[in-house]
Amino acid sequence: MAPLKRKDDSVDDDDSQAEEGPKSSFSTYVSEGDKLFAREEFTKAIESYTTALELQPGDIFCLASRAKCHLQLGDAPSCLTDAETALGENPDFTRALYLKAEAFYTMGNFEFALVYYHRGHKARPEQEEFRLGIQKCEEAINNSVGSPSTVELENKGDLSTFYKLDQDEKKKKGGYQKPQQDKKDSKSKGLTYKSKGDDAKTTRELLGELYSDREYLERLLKDESLCDEDTDVGLQIKTYVIDGLKFLDTRTEFWRQQKPLYARKAERMALARGSSRRGDRPQDPTSYILRNLEEIDDNLVKGKADNALKQAKKVLKTVEGWTEAEVPNKQEVIGHLHSQIGNALLDIDKPGEAMTHHQKDYDIAVENELEDSKSRALDNLGRVYARTGDFERAIRYWDEKLPLAKSPLEKAWLYHEIGRCHLELNHNSDARDFGEKSQAAAQEANDDVWQLNAAVLIAQSEVKLGDLQAAVESFERSQEMAKAQGDERAQQAIKQALDDVNDKIVKGVKDDDNKAVEGGKGESEKEKESKDQKDTDESSKEKDDIASDGSGSPHNKDSNNKS
Questions:
Q1: Residues 6 or more apart from 391 whose CB is under 8 A from it?
Q2: Looking at the whole model, is its pTM more than 0.85?
Q3: Which is nearest to 29 in space by CA: 12, 7, 45?
Q4: For 513-547, what is each residue's pLDDT tens digit?
Q5: Among 272, 313, 346, 384, which residue's CB has the most CB atoms within a 10 Å radius?
Q6: How buried is residue 251: exposed, middle or buried, by Cβ count under 10 Å (0-12/13-18/19+)?
Q7: Contact of 378 with 397, CB cutoff 8 Å
């Protein structure tokens, strides 16, 4: 009979279970975080990713996902911390580079952001977000610093304020004055908030619609009955109010750097001048183009291909109406828009039309000697032909792109795609060769995901080549990689492929045994037939001898019949 548990024992068991930590697997928590992120429940997603990181600390993909959540919540410092941790594990992890740049940009450190956008662009030139990040940083820096052509200092207006300040400075130098204590500060206790003293008009222009929120928070702060520090509720309310005001001050300073008032004023003046000449056309081409390109890319990522297609066509029509003076890189922008239109058309299953726009992107790139644009167009054309099953052409375009690849990671996925096409064409030796090239490039880039993809490609090629034992070894290596990455779906797929290969090996052995048995059976039957034939011949010979001895003698015939 099992011993009865005391009440204290059950409590101890509960405590020990509580101390065990997470109950599910790493991949389960990551999947949960991904779903919560898709539903824009970023706080809950952070909790799921944090739990996953307790199981596998330092996982760069999970760190990047949590950093993205922090960025969505406006917590740029936490985003920066996670991005730097991921980069500490893998300095070439481009997703973390992008998030680090975005965090710096959100914090107003445009120079640092520009550095990391450039690093990411160098590593992955085909990714548009890095190029767009460079452009928006350069624009913000130019707006902050200004240029002689846009900023003019004029010695006019009321200068009495500066004169008074100058006189006060001279009086201070003349003799000692007892500093006057601010009466308001002497009365305040505990939590305090000091406004930066910006002009109300300036603050209103910078904050826009948020200025009314600021006014509301300032009125709450002045309400002594509501923000009474002697009560817990009053102290809590005052804390929230001051935090809100400080946040708005931070935003004001950020927007002041990103686009100062003189830049806004010049923009409005240019808009007013241009509206009379060209109607409702956008008068800031750079901002208009950058904003729309980002929105189109965002729609493509979210699967809203129809919206992206409609917007890209509209922007293309607008840009084509501008002159080269208004948009110096007009052809590059037009090519980029054709690329986005092609991607949207491919997503809605219109490969023929997509091919036309990607070809236009390629022609523009070649005509204007735009190397990055040419690389992008070749990649997209290869994808379209691969989608339609024309693997020969896909290989030709990707082969042309190979010399333009600028990083080991780019070469890794390019070699892999070419290898996949060869596998579809049953060029199995070529498929294995490109799989090995992809694996070598992925190892150089220190990218685990593409090492796994390349290993699977090699294994599939070996299966088709009939080298089943080598295929088993390759699949087993792939299985270990998938386990290390926590990719359960990949583990299941590889396990199924591995089982199929093992079945083929077992079936091959049985077939060989059956052939051997059939071969042995055939030989014994032949021996038996030979023996039977020999016996038959001997019997026939005896009969012939008897028949020859008794031929023409009735007596002998009768005696034979009797016997």
A1: 385, 421, 422, 424, 425
A2: no
A3: 45
A4: 555 545 555 555 555 555 555 555 555 444 444 34
A5: 384
A6: middle
A7: yes
